[in-house]
Amino acid sequence: MATTQQLEVAAPGPAQHYPVTIAHDALKNATYWQPVLATVNTVLLVSDAMVSPLYQAELVATLQQAKPGVVVIPYTLPVGEGAKQWHHAHALLTLAAEHNLTRQDAVLALGGGVVSDLAGLVAALHHRGCRFLVAPTTVLAMVDASVGGKVAVNHTLANNQLRKNAHGTFYSPHAVVMDTATLSTLAPAVRRAGLAEVLKTALLESTARHTSGAVHPWLNRASSMLLNTLATSGITDEGMPDTIAHCVAIKATVVALDPTESPTETPAEALTELGDGGSSAGSPRMWLNLGHTFAHAYETLTEGALSHGDAVALGLLDAAAVSVAMGYLPNSQADALAALHQQLGLNHRLPSGCAITPAAMLQAMAHDKKQAGATRRLVLPMNTLGEVTVTSQVPDGLLTEVLTAQLHRHARG
Ligand SMILES: NC(=O)c1ccc[n+]([C@@H]2O[C@H](COP(=O)([O-])OP(=O)(O)OC[C@H]3O[C@@H](n4cnc5c(N)ncnc54)[C@H](O)[C@@H]3O)[C@@H](O)[C@H]2O)c1
Fold first, then answer.
1. Which of 75, 208, 271, 380 lies deepest, with the highest CB count within 10 Å?
2. Is 194 left (phi over 0), alpha (psi -120 to 50) or beta?
């Protein structure tokens, strides 16, 4: 059986740190849940229609063993991104009020990033913040969504346009308990989508290590870089807990530098941040956006036909191609990235029938909410894999040329 990994993640506010536990069969083991439930008498347990029949009963039994008498109120969301809507948050807040949840009671998310984003917003709002616990069950939720404190719902406009994560806040969990055994029931496409975020995280490890004054202690102890692990042994079931711990430590390092994603609202501010040349390591939290400006455009233009992780997988290839064209990344490193991408089995194609033009991409990228006014900022890999830069210097003409070639590639698959 794999060993248990314990990490601490820094958080803003009075708690300052929260524990992340990574263990096989953690949902069945009351010892992981006893400290987490110390103040809790009632748990609002949020899951979705796929995860709840698989894992809810065993988690409820474990919670009741860890804290005899604890009251568990289950709420099941429909499956998928469409569930991340305000009316579900409202229904959960009604339940919280009806069951008199106090600030010491907990909202517990059991599921993927959709469940934890929505449940976290509910926890942040109820009595201006009750306890928020996360038991992530997808690769993406373990390596990314459950750590860092971003919680949100989507907003669908009257014309049916989806604004992802339109309303949300920063609210860190009080504890995260990851059971790696739950990954065994993931559909291959869901697992693959999560691995795109693993590759993204590996591609910014060097920058996170070298720019940060205080690297997460787990990263200091971990002997090899994540990229090296991915390239040499890939991701085996046995290696998964270490890979997840590595990703959490990299994200924790970045988040600690910039817990609430310091905004650069105006082009002037963005350029000051970027320095005279328009390129720099940038605001740390922005590094996590590597490949995502392209990915968000793909998600918008395919109207949800592409999952977030699969869109990120395309975006990483696009970011590398732009970086080569800018002279930031040698061809050999772009080839190494493509080889890793292939080895991990990441998505490399647009859904069939999706005709996307470079002009539509540029327009969708301009609407990305991470952009600073009219200034387009891109996070690009540079020099050698593991390093990133943030730049506002990519001209429209060059971007159009690269996207023309990339869209052609993605269409062929
Ligand atoms: N807050 C953040 O920092 C952050 C970061 C990245 C992504 N996100 C958000 O996360 C969401 C995507 O998360 P996701 O990829 O986990 O999607 P998801 O929550 O929709 O889960 C994907 C699918 O897997 C199923 N599933 C989950 N766990 C399972 C298991 N163990 N076995 C079988 N099936 C299982 C779900 O029912 C769903 O059908 C998006 O809404 C995205 O915006 C948030």
1. 208
2. alpha
pLDDT above 90 (res 71): yes
Q: Are 185 and 48 in contact (CB under 8 A)?
A: no
What is residue 190's three-state secondary structure?
helix
SS3 of 8, please? strand
Q: Is the CB of 16 under 6 A from ligand 1?
A: no
User: Looking at ligand 1, which residue's alpha carbon is closest to its atom 37?
Assistant: 50
Give the confidence band of 58 by pLDDT, cuts at 50, 70, 90: very high
Contact 150, 81 (CB under 8 A): no
The tokens for 38 are 């110390």
Q: What is the best residue among 50, 121, 176, 258 to mutate for testing ligand 1's pocket, by most ligand atoms within 8 Å of CB?
A: 50
Asked if 141 contacts 113 with a C-beta cutoff of 8 angstroms, the reply is yes
Binding site membership of 251 for ligand 1 (Cβ less than 6 Å): no
Instruction: Return the number of other C-beta atoms located less than 10 Å from residue 332's C-beta.
Output: 8
Smallest CA separation from ligand 1 atom 33, residue: 186
pLDDT category, 282, cuts 50, 70, 90?
low
293: Cβ below 6 Å to ligand 1? Answer: no
Q: Which of 231, 248, 229 is nearest to 239 (CA)?
A: 229
Taking the centre of ligand 1 as the mean of its atom positions, its distance from the CA of residue 308, in whole angstroms, is 9
Q: Is 380 in the pocket of ligand 1 (CB under 6 A)?
A: no
Tokens of 332: 């050999």
Report how far ligand 1's centroid is from the alpha carbon of 164 (Å): 14
Q: Which domains does the chain have, with CATH numbers?
A: 5-186 (3.40.50.1970), 193-234+248-412 (1.20.1090.10)
- pLDDT tops 70 at residue 373: no
* Nearest Cα to Cα of residue 325 among 317, 356, 291: 317
Does ligand 1 come within 6 angstroms of the Cβ of 112?
yes
pLDDT: which is higher, 372 or 106: 106
The amino acid at residue 303 is E
Average pLDDT of the segment spanning 204-227:
87
146: Cβ below 6 Å to ligand 1?
no
End-to-end, the C-alpha distance of the chain in Å comes to 38
pLDDT of residue 275: 42
Which residue blocks in 160-307 are alpha helix, DSSP H?
A: 188-202, 205-211, 217-221, 226-233, 240-257, 267-274, 284-287, 292-301
Ligand 1 centroid distance, CA of 305 (Å)? 15
